[in-house]
TrEMBL record:
Membrane-spanning ranges: none
Signal peptide per UniProt: 1-23
InterPro entries referenced in this protein's UniProt entry, alphabetically: GGT_bact, GGT_lsub, GGT_ssub_C, Ntn_hydrolases_N
Disordered, as annotated region: 439-458
Keywords, ordered alphabetically: Hydrolase, Signal, Transferase, Zymogen
Protein name: Gamma-glutamyltransferase family protein
Pfam families per the UniProt record, alphabetical: G_glu_transpept (PF01019)
Record-stated family: Belongs to the gamma-glutamyltransferase family.
Length: 577
């Protein structure tokens, strides 16, 4: 996305007390992927979202205020990746209390959903359906985050997004391409075609795209509060859209209606959850607990690696393979996920001992995280590979002048969610419930169920040393999120890269699948070595779109976005000196 017509900073003056004068760097008019400085820092995929967050920080807001403001702007400028009718996970380091909090804003299944609700439905049909729309968690996440940890009101935090939605942004190639790739299904819904195919085609590159209906939706949310969605009129409209999708007359698409009721919206809560925590090379790595598999899988892989005498790319792929086998077998939104055991050193040692010179043949079987560990137990469970994943969703990082840190993943799942805009509201519905296992799959922890949250791979991560934050990171990319976060951590702490290099380095992802996907640069560097050790490699042109920040000492922060993946990201600091 390119610059908005009106700088978000101008908008905020109306409601946030002025901060002391600072040596603010001139605002870049284009995305810059790396910035280093003081007083706060932000990285997102989008210049407008980063500017909005920086503006909040400059006006005296904290990291949570800035993260919510940026998230809401991303709902405008990255509407196919995120929005108020989606979900996400937020990890927050609270500097005053020296404590890591996490918010689970994952969508829920309606009460009427059962383990067989998706059985027999082709995946692609599930993607574009009312059935796949989960009860949205993003608005509840913003509300909870602001009430517990922020200083801005809900209304204030939405203000920059309202401005961007009404003034518009310049359509870039990525937005055009994403719209074009979705055109076949967008045209099948009257509301979506009207918004995103204005003259029967995607808005041209260079044109200004305005979304006044979304501006009004945010305004109403600000005026009426989250209850407008969770049981109020907006909620009723979401339910009506899910149950009777506005299919274009003459369309032959089989659009399955959803099961959502207003009572499902009334029942929704974003939840404060205990983070996952593992210690790795003297660092404490905090992440998201179930229903995300992000924290447990990154954590288990790090523990496995720590149990090995040497860490290289072969070991990275093998640890990830084993951790994914356990994720697939044990992690979901169910009671009794053996989280403590999955993250125990004993279990990690048992798993690590399976790693040898040659690659294990995937899919490998899960281990037995039962608390009783031998020196080298052979797994006995049933192996399952990880499903295919798309590249969308978004992640942002924020640090403020007080040392608070946010890592926040938000999503509507597929590029363009379920493809259905709520008529008159300017927002696409999510299709997060396609993250459930469709089944039949007896014993699978991730089958759908009433009120259940689909297992996620989102892995917003904060790393502490001696109780103070040193790093924060995360990425989009479905289950490749986990390997991207893991690989960046290894690049930074084992492979001798600085943070900028750690993000830019070519990626590979092994998720207990027959082939390891890898970017071209990774293939060029490691193909021969890894094939000699039994790995099968296949090209994946682009894996992830990470954002990260690192404290460099004496309040200096470096914030890093992608140099080129997904068109590059936008990093800014409050003060360069
Ligand atoms: O929660 C998850 O892991 C996914 N629904 C996130 C979506 C994403 O990154 C793009 N992939 N399909």
């Amino acid at each position: 996305m390119r610059p908005v017509l009106l700088p978000a900073a101008a908008v905020l003056i109306a409601f946030v007390p002025a901060a002391p004068a600072v040596a603010a760097p001139a605002e870049p008019q284009q995305k810059v992927p790396v910035a280093t400085g003081y007083g706060g820092a932000v990285a997102t995929v989008d210049l407008d979202a980063t500017k909005a967050a920086i503006s909040v920080l400059r006006r005296g807001g904290n990291a949570v205020d800035a993260a919510v403001a940026a998230g809401a702007v991303l709902g405008v400028t990255e509407p196919y990746s995120a929005g108020p009718t989606g979900g996400g996970f937020l990890v927050y380091y609270d500097a005053a209390r020296r404590k890591v909090h996490t918010i689970d804003g994952r969508e829920t299944a309606p009460k009427a959903m059962t383990a067989s609700s998706f059985e027999g439905i082709p995946f692609e049909e599930g993607v574009t359906s009312g059935l796949s729309a989960g009860v949205p968690g993003t608005v509840a996440t913003w509300d909870l985050a602001l009430r517990r940890f922020g200083t801005l009101s809900f209304r204030q935090a939405l203000q920059p997004a309202i401005e961007v939605a009404s003034k518009g942004f310049v359509v870039d190639q990525t937005f055009y391409d994403q719209t074009a790739a979705n055109a076949a299904r967008f045209k099948d819904f009257t509301s979506t075609a009207k918004l995103y195919l204005p003259n029967g085609a995607p808005p041209p590159v260079g044109s200004v795209f305005r979304n006044p209906e979304l501006a009004e939706t945010y305004r109403e949310l600000g005026r009426r509060g989250p209850g407008w969605l969770y049981g109020g009129r907006f909620g009723a409209e979401i339910v009506a859209t899910v149950k009777r999708p506005p299919v274009t007359p003459g369309s032959t698409r089989n659009v399955r209606p959803g099961l959502m009721e207003l009572s499902d919206l009334t029942a929704y809560r974003a939840l404060l959850r205990e983070p996952t925590k593992v210690s790795y090379e003297g660092l404490d790595v905090y992440g998201m607990a179930p229903p995300s598999s992000g924290g447990s899988t990154v954590g288990e892989a790090l523990n496995i690696l720590q149990a090995l005498p040497h860490v290289g790319v072969h070991e990275y792929l093998e640890a990830s393979k084993l951790a994914f086998a356990d994720r697939n077998a044990y992690v979901g939104d169910i009671p009794g996920v053996p989280l403590k055991e999955l993250l125990s050193d004993g279990f990690a040692k048992e798993r690590a001992c399976l790693i040898g010179d040659q690659a294990l043949t995937p899919p490998v079987a899960p281990g037995n995280p039962d608390g009783s560990y031998g020196p080298c137990a052979q797994p006995t469970g049933i192996a399952s590979p990880t499903a295919k994943e798309g590249p969308e969703t978004t992640h942002l990082v924020v640090a403020d002048r007080w040392g608070n840190v946010v890592a926040y993943n938000l999503t509507i799942e597929s590029t363009g969610g379920n493809g259905i805009v709520v008529p008159g509201r300017g927002v696409l519905l999510n299709n997060e419930l396609t993250d459930f296992t469709f089944g039949p799959a007896p014993g699978d922890p991730n089958l759908p169920g009433p009120g259940k949250r689909p297992r996620s791979s989102m892995a917003p991560t904060v790393v502490l040393k001696g109780g103070k934050p040193v790093l924060a990171l995360g990425s989009p990319g479905g289950s490749t999120i986990i390997t991207t976060v893991l690989q960046i951590l290894l690049n930074r702490y084992d492979f001798d890269m600085n943070l900028e290099q750690a993000l830019a380095a070519p990626r590979a992802t092994q998720r207990n699948t027959a082939q390891t996907q890898a970017e071209q640069g990774f293939l060029d560097a490691y193909r021969a070595e890894l094939e000699a050790r039994g790995h099968q490699l296949v090209l994946n042109p682009e894996i992830g779109a990470a954002t990260a920040l690192e404290f460099l000492g004496r309040d200096k922060v470096q914030v890093v976005a992608e140099p080129s993946r997904r068109g590059g990201g936008s990093a800014m600091v409050v003060r360069s000196r």
